[in-house]
Every structure is written in C-alpha cells, then in structure tokens.
Amino acid sequence: MIPISYYLILSTIIFxxxxxxxxxxxxxxxxxxxxxxxxxxxxNFNLITLGNYLGDLTGQVFVFFVLTVVAAxxxxxxALLIVLFRSxxxxxxxxxxxxxG
Amino acid sequence: MNIELITFFIFSTLLIFTCIKVITSSNPVLSAIxxxxxxxxxxxxxxxxxxxxxxxxxxxxxxxxxxxLFLFVVMMLDxxxxxxxxxxxxxxPLGIAVFIAFNxxxxxxxxxxxxxxxxxxxxxxEIISDSNxxxxxxxxxxxxxxxxEIAGLILLLGIISAIVLTYRKNPKNKYQNPTKxxxxxxxxxxxxxxDLKE
Lengths: 101, 198
Description:
The complex is a heterodimer.
Chain A (H helix, E strand, L loop, with lengths): L3 H21 L4 H25 L4 H31 L13
Helix pairs in contact in A: 1-2, 2-3
Chain B lengths: L2 H22 L3 H21 L3 H26 L8 H28 L18 H11 L2 H22 L11 H6 L2 H4 L9
Helix pairs in contact in B: 1-2, 2-3
C-alpha cells in the first residue's frame, strides 16, 4: 500500500505547478486555461485518494461531477476565447484593457 | 520495494515532468500535447487507486473530447508562436517563488497531519459487487440522482452558450424569418388590377 501522503504531495506539486503557470503565462489565455485544467486534475487526485483511503465512494462521485462541470467550463471558455480573437485579433491579456486611466 | 510503489514513482515523476512542460513550452500545440500525456499518466495513477471507471472516463472524455477541442482552437486561432518576452522573464522569479513557498507549506502540513490516522475506521462503502463501475453507477442513480440530472442540465447549458457565443450569420445563406412571415398581410402580396381593358 502506498502511503497517502505520497499522493497528496503529488497533487500539491501539480497544483503549485499550475499556479506558477498562471503567473508565467500572463500573455496567452490558452495556456492559462490549460493551467486551469491541471489545477482541476490535482483537485480530482485529492478527492480520489481520500475517497480510496477512507473507503468511501462519494469522492469518486464528486470527481464525476467535477469532470462534467470542467467539460462545460472549458467549452464556454474556448468559445469566449474565439469571440475575443475575432474582435481583437489577439489573445493577449494586456490587449484587453480598454479603459485608459 | 514492491511493484505498486515502483509504478507510482515512475508515473508520478513523468507526470510532474509533463506538467512542467505544459507551462513552459512556448508553442501552445506542444502545451496541449503535453497536457494529453499528463492526463494519460494520471489515468494510470487513478487505476492504482482503484478508480477504474474514472480513469477510463478521463481518457475518453478528456483526451478524446476536451483536449481535441483545445487543439481545434489552437489550430483555428493561428497564433504566432510567442517568444520568451521580457514579461516572462520578469514573472519567472515570482512563479518559482510561489511554487517553492506553496510546496513547503503544504507538504509540511501533509507529512505532519496524515501519518497517524486509522483509515479503516470509517469504512462505509456500499458494496454491490466487486466492480467499481457498478458500485459507482448504483450510487449515481440512487443517492445522487438529482445531482446527476443537474450535471446533465449544466452540459446542456454549455452546449447552448458555446453555440450562441460563436454563431456567425452568413449573409449568403437564405433564412426564413418567422416574424416577417406572420406579420405579412394581404395587401403586401396581392395587387388588384381593375383597368385591364385599356
């Protein structure tokens, strides 16, 4: 049996990598969305690990719903990205600032 | 050192490596492909945890649908491959600092907290059969049926909003306009000609 802290540390490392990715890729919204996907993956890791070690299947049910919501979220996010690209011709976050103050 | 632990170490190392590749590669296509690899590797780790249904779902739904969506968008948008700009280098120390600080905090917490817990104390799994899929399906369709329906509604919402956002009317196509059709009256269509003999 693998100790539970190994899995939790792995998911922590993935989560922090994706936070660092959000800090690094401020230019590209697409890579920002991919970092979000990695974040959801690490949260799902936590849910499945704790559900397995506590002998409770509710964690896996929760992961099922998280996957559903994430699929809808990424579809809407990519649609917004396409609309943004049509109007601005770029997906840079810095080009989004309309107000000059 | 048993085979389970060896598998865990190999696949988790590869997983961390591909995650780092996702956030550091300058080409978005390479990022998406590395994300696909990381989903595959984590599906293997989920299999180790006994979540067979979810690991298959991760490959079928995520790699098969969501990541293909990402790749479609990457190909459609025609983005220039961004160079490592000054902003990237400016934010690199901040990113590394956040990474290290979070890791130290949370790993310290985990090592101290989760060592002395009796995990067998709260076994309340409702076992229907040996199959993980069957147990999960039983739970989904009995205890969590309302949540299941709401998940379906959320997916419908996703479909509708994605279509509405990206829909573009093509002026060449011929559409029916129901409002115009209903409001048409007789005098718009018919013209009575009385002086035909002249």
